[in-house]
Records
---
Amino acid sequence: MAGPTRENGRVVGAFATSHSPGITGFPERADAARREPIERAFAEVRNRIAALEPDALVVVSVEHFTNFFLANLPAFAVCTSDSYLGPVTREMGDFLNVEQHQYPGAAGLGRHLYEFALESEFDPSLVEGGLAFDENFCVPLKHLDPDSSYPLVPVIVNGVNPPWPTARRCYNFGRMVRAAIEAQDEYQRVVVVGTGGLSHWVGMPESGTINEDFDRDFLARLEAGDADRLSAYSQAEIDLAGNGAHEIRTWLVAAGAASAPFETLAYEPVPEWLTGTAVAAARI
Amino acid sequence: MFQLQKLLWDIRKDTALAARFQQEPDAVLDGYGIEGVEREAMRALDFKTLYDRGANPYLLYFCALQIGVDRAEYYARIRGEVI
């Protein structure tokens, strides 16, 4: 008789947050009435993740030309290192108010995810090492994992330069992430976090504008858990919420991985952080 | 445009190059083979013209910060409020 078999891994939680530098770098510029609900929501997610006792976090973010450039710009990338430097420079650390340090990587889960993606006919770039973090990971993780105690699998989605992967492709990539987690048993309890958006304009004349209608409609689609409506965004529709809104692709990956409706824990348009700022949790 | 964006990115990554661009922009622009409207715009810190010609606004903004243009001035320039 075979001995007891280990259960396969599960997505035990899925969350999504904004990552604008102001959240950690200059929170005080925002009115307390807008700042405090966001900070409470981050604390709520931090506590929920701790209660879930995850073996690893798959964190889906974008990359702001810190590592990648137009000479080789992945639509998706899966990172398989056992550690990541962040923030990339001490100067960025000062700007973000995050002390530069090494974040632990869940290398085994990263390698599994990369291989599973290829077998599932997704073709992400492979990043075995050398990836450094900017605000993409450092800002949310300062709130969600302040001691950097959870091993990470960073996943990058292109959100900085068109043309972009479609909304549907991002959602389906997330479903593939879920299937990958469920197809291994080394990491039993996995939390998925998407981070980016919502509406904002970076380096553009409109910077400081927030498209609250777009943001609230996006959150309504997430709350409905409606894969078709989440997958229906055209590039032009997202453009109406700024170049930074293309980062909602990270939320779409998280939504696909959750395959469940979300609750919005906080949403505040915060011009001082240049961003429609939100925190949400899947009802898993 | 690729060479221009390569310069913007390299300046973001390399503080020595950023300093050199501030001291001798023509030598740096020669090294990247940047000519014409893009060259004149880089020399004049005319980010609006570069943006209008398709340069990625993240790259423009990050480069500006590295060569001593602060955030307020950058946004004034990208809005065409500073000529």
---
Amino acid sequence: MESGFGLKIREKRKTLGLTQAEVARSVGISTSYFNLIERGKRSIGGALLLRIARALDLDPAALDDDAERRLVTELTETAADPLLSGLDLDAAAVPALVGRHPAWARALALLHRECRDRGEVISAMSDRLSQDPFLSDVVHRMLTTIAGIRSTAEILDSVDDLEATQSRRFRANLAVESTRLSEAAQALADFFDRSEAPKQAITPGEEVDDFIIAHGNHFPALEEGTARLRARLGANAAGGTAALAAALASRKDVAEGNHRPLSAPRRARAGYRDGGYRDAGYRDAGHGEDALWDGDGTVSEAGRRFAMARHAVLHDLKDTIDDLVENAPQLISEEARQRVVSVLASYGAAALLFPYDPFLEDAERLRYDIGLMRRRYQASFEQICQRLVSLRRPGAGGVPFAMLRVDPAGNLSKRFPLPRLPMPRHGAACPLWAVYRAFQTPGPVVRQLVELPAGDRFLFVARVVRKGVDSFAMPARQLSVAIVCNAQYADRLVYGDGLDLSGRARAEPVGVSCRVCPRADCQHRAEDPIVPT
Amino acid sequence: MATRLLIAEDEASILESLVFILGREGYDIVTARDGEGALQQLQADGAVRLLILDVMLPRVNGFEVLRAVRGDAALAPLRVLMLTAKGQARDRQMADQMGADAFIAKPFSNQDVVREVRRLVAP
């Protein structure tokens, strides 16, 4: 197996005119081990990756190409598609394909996504058609009427000695049945008019992921734009979140918008979408963000502020957001573009409320204690996590975090991966991840040191949050939110305290998702692996 | 004596056409507009040789009529031709299992009906 990762190392080494032995010696490993790395037989991360990158003057980010890794996972899954089973595709050849012909690999992945989308749409439509009582009734009515018309017309056409009264009678029947047929056809046309929906991609989530990953979850234009907006509002960082909130609330559009639902067209323009992103929507201001677990769960101040900030961003930085969306080659479907508008509005709101430099400084000083950050910024757990994940300014970044949010059924509704910690594209992640375990003890923060099959270690920090109004008829939504960092950063986090972070210490063995997990003896396995172990 | 057929069909224009084309073939035709009427006629009139039975009949539907017919020893010689809507594969399968002798899918051609009736009542 040859990986793109190994290829890059080899190509760069050759360009520099170095031998394997020379590079291996300079990074302190054996030539044979280095040879395995170049041939993609060993995957590496952490310190060794950084040493090799340094030795070859390569950008570590370029080496640890998460987009490429995602593509490999996606194509490996594609190879397992029953549609292709006759072709005997060698899944082990995927990394080489991705490494050598990245554009072709992306094309294959895109086509497969599209193919899957279409398949889903077709089966949904076919279910709809075979089960819809109205359709079955109207089709039956049409067939019956046509039967009458056909039979009558045949008589009129083929019987020469028809009496005048009979002929009149049959012609009258024709007229009646034709009218009934028209009515049935009209009813059918109305039905399809009503049920006609714009083509909806099933995988806009993946386009959104690709977009965020391509930007490293950092948008300088929005950081600068929100800094200007903050200055215009007359609230500087020293004034704190409360001052900014007061400045926002004094703005007519923001304050009014806060109490009035957006009209449908405005919601559409603002990128809101019923269902998926409702919790981020302005209409839910004050109810949408998570309340303290033991609070009364009705109105959260943090949620109200965030919604106001989001509104101001959508209003004042519309051009910046449009620019980002329009110039994104990753966004193919309209659905994905709309979602990205919503994602960027939330990003902007976080950047407005939690300005980059002081926020990063506080995070480092408070050792990423989310509880203390919440108090400092009067924000929700999820808002703090989301901002932490975006602290990626080149040269002035915080601890690199992944983030994910799941519901009790395991559905991933927010995901931002890290290099070497891919998030499953569909279905659930590894059931052993703390993000799921947090549901067992809602309230306190759950931490977990894990080791992935390839040997990479990560620290999970997860907590259950509650969204929405809690009523007996419709209980509040419970979601588990987690941030994850590479274990090499754990000592910068309060959550790493007391953990043995040495390489020899025990870490919980976990996977990414069952379909790509090689741990054959795991008793938590829910699905067979795609590639036999 | 002409062979007697019972046509059970609630759609007026289909019924009228069937009565006309089969009447021209020399059959003696009686009609019913719903399932209940069809069963009453069959029980009262032992001379009916063939029942042309629509599936979607008011009151007692075609399947229930068929079930009653096949459960009545006195009606054992009766042949049954069912009219089903095209594409209703499940209807046909069910009619087959319940003992119908033949099916014709709507919309049908008159010639098909005539041919099928001739076949079913042939001695």
